[in-house]
Amino acid sequence: MLRATLKSLLSRKLRLVLSGLAVVLGVMFVSGAFVLTDTMGRSFDSLFASVFEDTDVQVTQKPKVDGQDMGPSQASNIPAATLDKLKNVPGVAKVVGEANADGARVIGKNGKVVTTFGPPRLGENWVGTSDLMQLREGRGPQADDEIVVNATTAKAAGVKVGDDVGVLTLQPGKKVFKLVGIVGYSGDRDSLGGSLEVFFTTPVAQELMLGEKDVYSSIKVTAAPGVSHDQLRADVAAALGGESGQAGGFQVKTGKQLQDETTKDFREGLSFFNNVLIGFAGVALFVGTFLILNTFSIIVAQRTRELALMRALGGSRGQTLGSVIIEAVAIGLIASVLGLAAGVGVGVLLAWVFGNVSGVALASVGVPAAAVISAFVVGLLVTVVAAVLPALRASRIPPIAALQEVATPDRPLTKLTVSGALIGAAGGTMLGLGLAGQGDNTLWLILGGVLISFIGVALLTPLLARPVVALLGRLFSWSVPGKLGRLNSGRNPRRTAITAAALMVGLALITGVNVILASAKQSLSSQAATQVTVDLIISGDGDDNGPAKFDPAVMDAAAKLPGVASTASEYWDFGQLEGGGGTGISATSDMAAYAGMFKMTPTEGTLNWTGPNQAVVDTENAQKRGLKLGSTMTIQFSRGAPHTVTVVGLYKRSDVMGGTIVSGDVVKDFRSPQPSWGYIRVTEGTAVADIQRQVDQLLVDNPEVSVANRAEFVDAQSAQFDQLLTMIQILLALAILIAVLGIVNTLALSVLERTRELGLLRAIGMRRAQTMRMVTVEAVVISTFGALLGLAVGTGLGAAVVRALKDDGFSKMAFPWTQMATYLLLAALVGVLAAILPSIRASRVNVLQAIAHD
After folding, report:
1. How far apart, in whole angstroms, are the C-alpha atoms of residue 667 and residue 673?
2. DSSP string for residues in 542-583
3. What are the tens digits of pLDDT across the range 292-317?
4. Cβ of 255: how many Cβ atoms within 10 Å?
5. Which residue, 120, 113, 153, is CA-closest to 51?
6. Which of 4, 158, 159, 612 could be 163's S-S partner, Cβ–Cβ 3.0 to 4.6 Å?
7. What does the mean pLDDT of the chain come to?
8. Rounded to 10 degrees, what is the CA torsion of 690, 691, 697, 701?
9. What would the pLDDT profile of 434-446 be if each residue is shown by its tens digit?
10. More confident position, 764 or 99
């Protein structure tokens, strides 16, 4: 029986290739993700080891604001007196004060700010060269108007030694410096992990990056000969008034500790990225399951007489079951090996691309155990699970079937329909609970609900297949090949349904995301039109440290322009609420003008400042925190002492406005005392475009931001949704490709199954072109049916999510009709392409041999 199974498998190489290809692609995605993250993880391990290799012990001040969900914690400044104190600690050979912070943005020769894809843009004080960093050109900065940059920054900005270079820092206004040197790093590196670095003299770095003189962001302590790093850490901590590692308000850590903590944080982020990739790979494998299930179902149907003959010759049900499972295992093993090899190649390629973009030196290529294990577990599991039902069906074939025709009658759809309805209802219930926020595992409820709903819809699809396919096929019934293609696509509703369901999954996810994003864009436009009275908005793209900043002098000049009715500046920083975590806090100097621009409705008190250290809070947050008119709350910002502010007004939360807003006098203790947004209203009868051009001229020294009218601002925000949609479409393209392979596979096996039928059609006069058109119509009908299912299911899922988020700013429901129509047309085109090879094969059938085919 084993030899017969293997011979049967080898005799049908086409189905082996097509079935295995779906698994190969899915396994490639999974193993490629593990290879990519492993390579990048080891690359950054090496990077962080070199960054901290000359650090024995580092002292930092505990951040004033911690637990931020929107960016890294900002360490507090250390007084220069601490530096002098540490010089006298026994076992200390050298003490160096470091004044550095993320936020030094170099303006390139083209007038634009040099950006990165994640790495920081550091502003630091020059402390000389070391084994890690050496000068490649020029010298270190000596005067306060001189800087040094690393080679990556110089290349990206297009500057050289002797050039005047503009730099934006955490303090207002563009500063111009003379570039006097360019540095590189050990190993002939231009940067450390793609970081852009600017080195100032120590006083300038302190003032521009730390906001005050005679302070440092960290202190690097070097051990004397014979003193271990752990011992030095303990001695330094004791000198600062605390136990080892925690000295009062200081954090004392060895270089090894810093390396381990930084590596751990990075690997956690890398793990999230890996999980996202595996999630999309899971979608592809889920779709692949439909393909394999359909393939084995067709094969079992085609081999009914063969399997029955085996039973008649003495084969048991277990042996019949085992023969199909062995075939699945063989396909799974071969696909796993090929998928693993392809995954290694893809992972290395993506790591190379990432390394070139980020500037990180790649570690040697390795294949982690997780990639190998997951490749074989996933490959075998998917194929075997998909083959179980066909295998059980094969084991139930009676020996008497050997004397019957191969064609088997359709089974009733009652059980399948009832099962689909129950499973679909369970999936819908889970999805509803997840979207409603019920339970502790909301995300898993949503994901599980979507998965189970897809299975339910797939089980219900055969019930819809025959009537929907018949209706679609009438579009092509104007010719005999068209009529035959329509009839062929509906003759086996189960087969048609499974093939269409594979396409349905990927398209449903894309459509669902499309509906959500279209509703978000429509809601944003509606909110801007009904809840905002601003004519012009100054803003820019931000980074991990928050939104882009600009010089506050711009708003002062804009307020004086003829035709400007009012202006308001919005500052932003992380703030630590007493008894709570870190959160984003806005500040404005003119609360009355600000409130009018966003139609804020007061419920108690006033929306106007009457003195310093004041705040207004929306009613929902006030209720959560137990605040009322006249209450006080303590807020710690990135710098300075905590501020105790008084609540002078409560307002109704809206789609565009909510949270805590504080008076402008506290801005001096923000990380950067510069506005993030500027709002301008023009007088009636004044052309907005004229004021926009004048404001644009005021921003010439602030290239990180731009001025836009309300419609342009909304379009710019909506463009981010389009980028997200494009990324999701790319990641789901693999699932769509597998679905297309499913159509090709189904048609190819169907052509083989209908060999005698095709021979008879050719014998009675059907030409080759007509045969090809018949198969093409069948493919187009199936792919269009799958697309309609995907559009319907995706629209329903997207609408459910939008409905659940109505209290979170989704005020409008919108359907992307143009994109949906495009998807439908592309599905029809996919059907045409998928039919090319099967139709050619059908047209080349030898008439006499086909008629004699058994």
Report:
1. 6
2. -BTTBS----THHHHHHHTSTTEEEEEEEEEEEEEETTS-EE
3. 777 777 777 666 667 777 777 777 77
4. 20
5. 120
6. 159
7. 84
8. -150
9. 877 765 677 778 8
10. 99
